[in-house]
């Protein structure tokens, strides 16, 4: 399954929504976040979160170019929820 949280304007809460979706869905499912945000907000939040050993880290992936984007869609796992930020 692919979930995309998108908006053309910055500062509307996209990364916050993605982060919270990933945390909650990650309790019951295999979840991977695809961080396409140029500010890499999810990545920064993950670094802060990683300071607490009791919290499960998020799986975060970056797609830096068109080739990586195409490859991602060819190799995605059927039992994983992908959330695009």
Summary tags:
85 residues; alpha/beta; four-stranded parallel sheet; 36% helix; globular
Topology:
Elements: E1 2-4, H1 14-25, E2 30-34, H2 41-49, E3 59-61, H3 66-75, E4 80-84
Parallel strand pairs: 1-4, 2-3, 2-4
What would your notes on this structure say?
Helix content is 36%, strand content 19%. The chain is built from three helices and four strands, in the order E-H-E-H-E-H-E. The chain has helices spanning 14-25, 41-49, 66-75, and strands spanning 2-4, 30-34, 59-61, 80-84. Strands 1-4-2-3 form a four-stranded parallel beta sheet, with helices on one face. The longest helix has 12 residues, at 14-25. The protein is globular.
Question: For the CA atoms, what is the radius of gyration?
Answer: 13 Å
Largest sheet: 4 strands, parallel
* H/E element order: EHEHEHE
Q: Average pLDDT, to the nearest integer?
A: 86
Number of helices: 3
Q: Name the beta content range.
A: 15-25%
Uncertain residue segments: none
The coarse silhouette is globular
**Helix share bin:** 25-40%
Strand order of the largest sheet: 1-4-2-3
Give a brief description:
The chain has three helices and four strands, in the order E-H-E-H-E-H-E. With 85 residues, it is α/β, with parallel strands linked by helices.
């Amino acid at each position: 399954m692919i979930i995309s949280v998108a908006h053309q304007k910055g500062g509307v809460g996209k990364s916050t929504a993605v982060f919270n979706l990933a945390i909650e869905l990650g309790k019951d499912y295999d979840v991977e976040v695809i961080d396409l945000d140029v500010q890499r907000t999810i990545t920064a939040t993950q670094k802060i979160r990683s300071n607490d050993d009791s919290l499960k880290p998020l799986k975060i992936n970056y797609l830096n170019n068109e080739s990586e984007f195409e490859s991602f869609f060819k190799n995605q796992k059927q039992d994983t929820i992908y959330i695009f930020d």
